[in-house]
Amino acid sequence: MASRFFAELRASQVESACGPSSVAVLPVGAIEQHGPHLPLATDALVAEAVSKEVVATHDEDLWLLPTLSYGRSVEHTWAAGTLSLSTATFAAVLDDIGRSVAAAGIRRIVLVNGHGGNVSEIQTALRDLRLAYGLLTFSVNVFLPEEHDPAWAASETGLGIHGGAAETSLMLHLRPDLVDLSAAERRIPAQMADNVHARFGGSVAFGWLANDFGPEGYLGDPTLASAEAGASGFKSMVATLGDQLAEVARFDFPDSAR
Q1: Exposure class string for 76-111: b at 16+ Cβ within 10 A, else e
Q2: Bridge-partner residues for 199, per DSSP?
Q3: Residue-wise pLDDT tens for the chain (258 aa)?
């Protein structure tokens, strides 16, 4: 299969290579602290790797855009190394990319997101881009669920959301050279473990900063991580994203819609 990396096209090739049936795939991540054991680029690396694998191995008219590595990481700005966009800047960047994609003749864009702090802003951007440029807009979150491994679920009790077993396993698979397991410890706040409503994914939302849970700023049990679990999880994520993008490529509104 020919390269589907949009940035590798020459300008003279864009019009013939891309069109209304094309799907622009934009990995979106973050550069932020992930505890003492994982690299700053964890979210961006995972989003890019999953997107790249799907685009390279599927037959749909998919085009991989360069990864937007910077995201909205205000919950991590207390830590050295975090490079966060403001809400307004993040929205403006997504708007500029959407406008440019539409100008290239592409009708569909999917934001493949690897950072939880980007979710609400991306949801807002989907409708704004639809209104401004007539694009068909979509988002997918590529997070490996705790349920992927029973040991994770038992140990992390729904709190392994940042730097825990899932992310550490994925990085052990993708970039083991960037992981320092000797610095990993279990970090589960006991006062939240039994909450039913005021918890991550619960019915009561709460504002938080990563260092609210400890000075190292991560949550979960990375001591349970393994490259084998990361490889299995990555394969599952690729299969899921492949199915999702295949459906996106077919998606349209009724003829009467805008």
Answers
A1: beebeebebbeeeebbebbeebbeebbebebbbbbb
A2: none
A3: 568 999 999 999 999 999 999 999 999 999 999 999 999 999 999 999 999 999 999 999 999 999 999 999 999 999 999 999 999 999 999 999 999 999 999 999 999 999 999 999 999 999 999 999 999 999 999 999 888 999 999 999 889 999 999 999 999 999 999 999 999 999 998 888 889 999 988 999 999 999 999 999 999 999 999 999 999 999 999 999 999 999 999 999 997 455
Residues 208, 210, 211, 212: is their CA dihedral positive or negative? positive
| H helix and E strand count, the chain | 8, 4
Choose among 100, 89, 92, 87: nearest CA to 133: 100
Three-state SS at 24: strand
Q: In what order do the strands lie in the sheet with 62-64?
A: 62-64, 23-28, 108-113, 136-141
CA gap 6, 40 in Å, rounded: 26
DSSP string, 171-194: HHHH-GGG--GGG---B--HHHHT
Identity of the residue numbered 104 = A
* Residue type at position 28: V
Q: Chain centroid to CA 207: how far? A: 20
